[in-house]
Amino acid sequence: MSQISEINGKTPEQMEKILEYIKNPKGFFLMAGTNGTGKSFVAEAIYNSIRLPIHEWDLKLMISQTDLNLKWQKQIKDWGETTYLLDQIIATKILVLDDIGTRIPTESFMDFLYAIADKRYSNKFNCGTIITTNLNSQNMRLKFGDAFVSRVASGVCLRMDGKDRRFIEF
How far is the C-alpha of 4 from the C-alpha of 1, rounded, in Å? Predict the structure, then answer.
């Protein structure tokens, strides 16, 4: 938990939600906010702090939308379908989808993302899904649709705005 104790600038309420999720990583944990406010950092800290039983150690996955899209495209190219990749993601105990909405996905990839959200929502008592995005709720609804947002916003939602900590004046 050392990485968690080093999260600066988070309110006590945000820290309480983060620590509670680490203790019981079930359902969705959505972090939305502007660039550079620490969403991915917090997601990775949560991900690294969640301890799974030894027999489930390999059931954690942290991936960006861009990398997931590349894996998805490769599955289609190599096998003509994505059932295997979808099954792997659904079986994962802890999933972090980072930077959702940063790129405009194709309609078929949107269907793939919806299938992930829908299946993981159905299994929310047995798995944890952490999502980071720069989009606000209105833009998420426009880009992904109400059904997707309804599922991923069904759990803990944190708004993380502020100064971009990565940006350096030049």
Answer: 5
How many CA atoms within 13 Å lie on the side-chain side of 91?
Answer: 10
Q: Write the CATH number of the domain with boundaries 2-159.
A: 3.40.50.300
pLDDT at 21: 92
Residue-wise over 129-151: b if at least 16 C-beta within 10 A, else e?
bbbbbbbeeeebbebbeeebbeb
Enumerate the β-bridge partners of residue 98: 64
Q: Where does 33-164 show beta strands of DSSP type E?
A: 60-64, 94-98, 128-133, 156-159
* Mean pLDDT of the chain, nearest integer: 87
Give Cα separations from 153 to 45, 51, 58, 98 (angstroms).
20, 24, 26, 15
| Tally of CA atoms within 13 A in the half-sphere of 99 that contains its CB | 16
Tell me the pTM: 0.88
The predicted-structure confidence for 124-150, as pLDDT tens digits, reads as follows 888 999 999 999 999 999 999 999 999
- pLDDT confidence of residue 14: 83
Rounded to whole angstroms, the Cα distance separating 118 from 152 reads 9
